[in-house]
């Protein structure tokens, strides 16, 4: 094996096996107990993680929460549900099962056996990909820290905490890779993942959307719909990676991610349902006075979260993305379903650019536009939820509809940055933008009015007035179920 601490396989045990049964402390399927150096490194990181959780995790004091914990990676029965004190959640390390015959599915190493070690020539790039992914996981926990104080129900409170503990577990997943495969530099990066904090002036999180405040529950639902979905697509590309431990980690993370997006899809849907109900009941769209959120404001929240999430895909054209692909580090969404040569050296595609105040198409090498390729997949997926929400409006007999704004709307990254594009896709001048911004994005007043509706509803089976109850409970429990037991101090 390699003796260079910076590259090569995860370190093997060098001394007598520890008497601490580490499997008890960190559930895992990577045989941590057999690797003493790695085990000790993660042991050293664990209290720092728990300290971070205490300082920047959910602020509402709870006794216990009905949470699912990953206990296996198999197709059936990977999760276990129980009431557990959140700080005792079993954050574990789980990789999807290894396929010993797996080959690299794309790029110039296509067909070679998947790497079980970090290839020296791609070490820096792989580490960067893992750090950027890892940075988003605790960031969202920080952003959502105070939401528990205003939850619309115990059901929603439980879902928030489920998302939070799993984002914490995703951090563990990335930290495991850094510790196991990237030596001292990896361990230093793992420390930094707890030191950068969302919105921190001096040391912010790496990506813009993860420094925005999550001010209220409507934004939380939009976040889990649009921003967790960006996470799904990023994980989907890393799941194709030639670096097998990363691929297997991401494959398992995707299972958990599905619930986060369920929270977003159904959360927005329930807000829309309640809004439709109030509009019909009172015969007006202006339902603030009746304790509901007007559809126009829901649309503005949607516009905001969609546009900042679109920025997470990076510039449409990116040499890095092309290099990651050619090197076999990061694939395309559902790479093996693509009917092409999986090398893309001669393929072209169309992309939009802004020229002389017009949006026009031009042809570019596909390899240079892989961020756009992924973003297009994402956009198509985002449209599904909007259809569902519109179905709720139609079912209520209303003519109003929600829509995804144009891809160029409110963009800070890529070809549209520096241009003003309306939600309908019209390039406008700065004066027009300034005059219309309040119609397109949530104003301070909108946010204040939404915040005013955010009163906690902690009674079993009850829901705040601005949101409908869900169709069903979690894990076949009834909607009326004590999903969360608050600490005495929270009730006082
Ligand atoms: Fe995550
Ligand atoms: Fe997530």
TrEMBL record:
Signal peptide: none annotated. InterPro entries: Aromatic_CoA_ox/epox, Benzoyl_CoA_Oase_BoxB, Ferritin-like_SF, RNR-like. The keyword Oxidoreductase applies. It comes from Actinacidiphila oryziradicis. GO terms for molecular function: oxidoreductase activity. Keywords: Oxidoreductase. Residues 1-21 are annotated as: Disordered. One of its GO terms (cellular component) is cytosol. Its EC number is 1.14.13.208. One of its GO terms (biological process) is phenylacetate catabolic process. NCBIfam families: benzo_boxB. PANTHER family: 1,2-PHENYLACETYL-COA EPOXIDASE, SUBUNIT C, PHENYLACETIC ACID DEGRADATION PROTEIN PAA. This is Benzoyl-CoA 2,3-epoxidase subunit BoxB. The lineage of its organism: Bacteria, Bacillati, Actinomycetota, Actinomycetes, Kitasatosporales.
